[in-house]
Design brief:
Blueprint: H1 58-66, E1 71-74, H2 78-81, E2 104-106, E3 110-112, H3 118-127, E4 131-136, H4 152-166, H5 172-179, E5 190-193, H6 204-218, E6 223-226, E7 238-246, H7 247-252, E8 266-276, H8 283-298, E9 303-306, E10 312-314, E11 325-327, E12 332-334, H9 336-346, E13 351-353, E14 364-371, E15 376-383, E16 389-393, E17 400-411, E18 430-438, E19 441-445, E20 449-456
Parallel strand pairs: 1-4, 4-5, 5-6, 6-7, 7-8, 8-9, 10-11
Antiparallel strand pairs: 2-3, 11-12, 13-14, 14-15, 15-20, 16-19, 17-18, 17-20
Helix pairs in contact: 4-5, 8-9
């Protein structure tokens, strides 16, 4: 027990529990006498990822780290906008002591304490070896906006955010970052100006240009992401696609970027997922996304970035469906879509290799890349049909192979199969191998599967 006073004070303690996990456990605070007691910012933390103060739950963070992402887009999309501007994410309210962060209502239907704030995001991104892609509000929410002529405070807020992340410790906001324990800059090199704002209130183009002009003066090397293919607007380095549809759309649009103008801005597919007929995240959705991803890989000279969305959902508060990673207070279950993202991240090389697919029923999709350092080919094959099929692989001008081929397969008996907290590994990758000394060779591709072959040359 601890004596209370008439002033606000911080109280903390460490708890050691038995080795029993209980998802419905409660944390109870009781007083020894009748009276009025005020509480604020009550939080119970398990051990955090890399032991960071106010950090992330280790098992959830590890699932993200296991994907080996090269970047993270943060702090979100619609979360940045807010339903109203008064509810938009404001980064300055998300730094400093947790008890002093005011928090905000967000349009996903809950009060955010902003405990996961600007510094926590940047630190986690650094911890997993990724690069930060920052999304800033440019004076537009879902229901209201700031006219371009009145944007200066919002532009300054974005400039201050970049100084907090990138500035030396001798600057105002860089000094604050150093005070909070990170003297070295985080080096944001890409910033998204708004989220899904094209066409809203007729001001996006003007607001975009005002932000881009001011930022480029101070940070000439930062790349800008526009929310769509803007015509006649300068300083568009990358433009953003958000794609949510059914599995047929993804299969039918594998080649969506084949004819993209190579002299224009690069492409960022920052949100994509099968959201119709996908259950809570089933294999059918994942395979369609995998087929679409082969097109992103093939066109990676123009498709600069891609990311599945959303990332997490608490199973007791599903406000969007599906999501890559499901969890409750004690357990975690990655969906098949998570495994697709992980496998493409872990098994994509640095040089695209042309692939010709002959599939009479259009049930096979493929892409290939070369690992220059190890001189090996990574070949991804999706079979959307139920039946397994013997596929002949011919590596043109490469008759002799080194021998042992590693195979990683994501498959299950039904397209409706899902993972759950009770069955977290019902659909999960399995690794095998086989030997071959020459090309062409034949391999049996399972039905309803994504298969990666790592072929030493």
């Amino acid at each position: 027990s601890t004596a209370l006073t008439s002033s606000w004070a911080y109280y903390g303690l460490g708890l050691t529990t038995s080795n029993v996990q209980e998802s419905n456990a409660r944390f109870s605070i009781r007083t020894s006498a009748v009276g009025s007691v005020w509480f604020d910012v009550v939080s119970v933390f398990p051990p955090t990822y890399k032991g960071r103060a106010n950090g992330l739950r280790a098992d959830l963070a590890q699932r993200v780290a296991d994907m080996k992402p090269t970047f993270m887009r943060f702090p979100g999309g619609c979360y940045v906008e807010g339903d109203k501007l008064v509810d938009a994410f404001r980064w300055k309210n998300s730094i400093g002591p947790i008890s002093e962060r005011p928090g905000h209502w967000n349009l996903w239907g809950y009060w955010s304490e902003d405990g996961l704030g600007m510094l926590e995001y940047l630190t986690f991104i650094e911890d997993i070896g990724a690069s930060p892609v920052y999304v800033t509000n440019i004076g537009i929410s879902h229901t209201d906006y700031i006219p371009t002529a009145s944007l200066q405070p919002w532009i300054q807020d974005a400039l201050d955010a970049l100084q907090f992340a990138n500035g030396p410790a001798s600057t105002q906001w860089g000094a604050l970052r150093a005070k909070y324990g990170h003297p070295q800059p985080f080096n944001i090199s890409i910033i998204a100006l708004g989220n899904e704002d094209c066409g809203k209130f007729g001001v996006y183009n003007q607001n975009y240009e005002a932000f881009a002009t001011a930022i480029r003066k101070q940070y000439p090397n930062i790349l800008f992401i526009a929310n769509c293919e803007l015509s006649g607007v300068p300083m568009v380095d990358i433009f953003d696609y958000h794609i949510y549809s059914n599995d047929d759309w993804f299969y039918n649009n594998v080649h969506a970027f084949d004819k993209q103008d190579r002299n224009g801005a690069h492409v960022f597919v920052s949100e994509y997922a099968v959201t119709q007929g996908s259950g809570k995240g089933n294999l059918g959705a994942a395979l369609a996304e995998a087929a679409f991803t082969t097109g992103l890989v093939i066109n990676s000279d123009i498709v600069m970035l891609a990311s599945y969305a959303p990332l997490f959902t608490n199973v007791y508060d599903r406000t969007w469906n599906p999501d890559a990673i499901q969890f409750n207070s004690t357990a975690v279950a990655p969906t098949p879509s998570y495994w697709v993202q992980l496998l493409f991240s872990q098994h994509t090389g640095d040089v695209v290799v042309p692939v010709q697919v002959t599939s009479p029923n259009n049930t096979l999709f493929a892409c290939a890349t070369l690992y220059s350092r190890t001189n090996s080919i990574s070949l991804a094959v999706i079979n959307r049909a139920e039946a397994a099929v013997d596929v002949s692989f011919d590596l043109v001008d490469q008759n002799k192979l080194s021998g042992n081929v590693t195979v990683v397969t994501l498959s299950s008996g039904s397209l409706l199969d899902e993972n759950s907290l009770d069955l977290p590994d019902q659909v999960a990758p399995k690794t095998s191998s086989f030997k071959t000394q020459s090309s062409p060779f034949t391999y049996n591709i399972e039905g309803y599967s994504l298969t990666f072959m790592i072929i030493p040359l």
